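Notes from hallway chat w/ T.B., transcribed later so I don't forget. T.B. wanted the structure written out for a chain they're using in a teaching module, and asked if we could keep both sequence and structure tokens in one place. Agreed to drop them here.
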Amino acid sequence: MTTYLGIDLGTSGIRALLVDEGGAPLASASKEMSVSYPHPGWCEQDPGAWIEALESVVGELKRDYPRFADIRAIGVAGHMHGATLLDADDRVIRPCILWNDTRSHAEATRLDAVPGVQGLSGNIVFPGFTAPKLLWVQAHEPENFERVAKVLLPAAYLNHYLTGDHVADMSDSAGTSWLDVGGRDWSENLLAAGGMRRDQMPRLVEGSAPAGVLRADLAMKWGLLDNVVIAGGAGDNAAAACGIGALNEGDGFVSLGTSGVVLAARGGYHPAPETAVHTFCHAVPERWYQMGVMLSATDSLNWLGRITGQKPGDLARGLGDTLQAPGRVRFLPYLSGERTPHNDADIRGSFTGLGQESDVSDLTRAVFEGVAFGLKDSFEAIRSTGAELKAPFAIGGGTRSRYWVELMATVFGVPLNLPEGSEFGAALGAARLGMVAATGATPSDVMSPPGVSAVVEPNPLLIDAFEESYAAFKATYPAIRAIQ
């Protein structure tokens, strides 16, 4: 019997999910990884750690689950934008500069101002994107820049390990500022603007298409057949969209994870860089998606837990299950800067409205509300492009708090669907991409949405109060920005 493997390379760890021929989960394994912060605003990771972690989870599945030997295809999803630099001998030149690294904010600003860059890429050049990272390396590490033969994103680096080829998918590559996102190909003009060449880029394939086959030596080592298909794969959010069945216009989700995402699938290409909405290729052909991103969602609660000495879950449970009216204390969730809608790497978070009576519960409620308002910014920015999200799925670790989900539904003014089961994320999406690549199946036949375990409706008694509080939240940003 046939099985498929989905690999989700995250910032803090890697996860492998084994599914059967119908896409039902059979087993999973995960391995944590660390990141380094050499300077304020910097965030790096050793690509060698990705390989070690991959071998660890593969070894666990091979040891404990006999159906691992039946794998027919593998798909890889990975965190986007990371610059993995290889020399002519495919050796890693320096640690990968990750998606949340903001050192190249000046280079991003200069590149964004080059005529035609936004028009071709469909996006603002954010500091976290790949192209400004290479401009930073060129300016500050010229000896490393001269050695660059290939630039691979994290998922593409794992594809290289699996296949021996330099190959990447459209969805991941759309976040580089080198891709013509509408034309789904590398742009000579964008590459030239970023000081790069086409021969330094990987070969492009659709995420649901075959990228190659598993290297013979790995197939032997892992006990697999010698014709295991490796799919093009996807960036993490495109893979999550495949996992939850968000392929068509009107489909989408709100992800309440370390970072926060509002994603809408689009049947056509509708760039709106002036909104700071990301417009990227989807992982399946002839489709795109748009998303707004906030950098500190549940990470804001994690931060509050660290400074108060409490577990984030305990802080959340302290609010109970009944949604309260907006509190007096307000929180701006910009602990690491912000993308949508501000594109501001320098802004930082703040509490306002504190009084002698303020306690940890007030701070927790303010964090919940600030994150919900930050995601509302993305929700409204996406709606301004013509996309409609009438009842998106709510996913991510933060959705374990029913309070937070009802708060977001009330702030957004739309119902939020909670999915059934526990498998609907990037690892499942990656496995589904492998299924399509190996079988030639139609993506919509494989990438169906999960059932709905609950529909969380907006609280009609509090919609107006939260709308008023959201307006005050939006007014706070320019005031705080002016004094920072």
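Follow-up for T.B.: The chain has two domains: 3-237, 246-420+451-484. Might be a good example for the class.
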